From TrEMBL:
This is Unnamed protein product.
Amino acid sequence: MYDLFAGSQALRYSYLMSKSNTLDKHPQLDPAGLVGGLVYHDGLFNDARMNVSLALTAMKNGANVLNYMEVKQILKNPEGKSKGVRVEDKETGEEYLVAADAVISATGPYSDLLLSMDKSATGLPEPEILNKPKMVVPSGGVHIVLPEWYCAKDMGLLDASTSDGRVMFFLPWQGKVLAGTTDVPLNKVPENPLATEVEIDDILKELQHYVKFKVRREDVLSAWCGVRPLVRDPSQIPDDEQPGSGSTQEHT
Ligand SMILES: Cc1cc2nc3c(=O)[nH]c(=O)nc-3n(C[C@H](O)[C@H](O)[C@H](O)COP(=O)(O)OP(=O)(O)OC[C@H]3O[C@@H](n4cnc5c(N)ncnc54)[C@H](O)[C@@H]3O)c2cc1C
């Protein structure tokens, strides 16, 4: 299907590997039950580096880039149009007013908070919105980093249909191996998402199905949790979660 959709723009075409070729390429795999491999090609990028180069490019083109500056309020003109933002420097606690012709929110899982500022006449957020997100619902995803022997250096492994129905992968990453993931629906957007021991253990248990050696907790070099901003169709939001209902207060 990848090749079909990519057509002439395919990075490279897919091919099947016999069981013995798969084991040559991935000697860490448990041969029991292994039938073979299907190789396909996909893109990968370093999100942290991409973010830094984006910020540097913007600066090179005349932008002022501010980090640790949280938007607390959208400032409005008498017609209710946004004319800037009030921000707080998270390092010093000082507040600043920033004038703007347009305000663009690219706040991922926090989009509902910014949308509530946009909707409110005062530009202040609905305080409870992150405990009851409306349009962008959060899902926690944990990744772990393992030593290099968990995967070949130039080819990752992905199982799209694991014992509990999720996608598992091992990917060569910065000389080590990135493995995951979990997909846990959250009922609120956490301020500092953390990978729990239960989630790390869950990933390790699932990974054990693939490799022939013992997966050990002490092999985990680092672990973190990210929040996926999954978009929900506003017309499908249940009545009790509609704006103005329940305990949350809606500014109009
Ligand atoms: C575990 C996991 C795996 C994923 N895997 C994939 C994948 O394989 N492929 C894929 O395409 N996508 C994947 N995603 C999704 C992808 O990472 C996100 O969709 C993407 O990062 C969203 O980008 P964004 O710029 O919209 O938001 P974010 O990257 O979340 O950025 C939002 C920014 O807004 C800032 N912010 C929030 N509120 C305020 C405020 N009040 N004032 C100032 N700043 C604020 C935040 O600090 C943050 O820096 C994955 C996500 C997770 C968590």
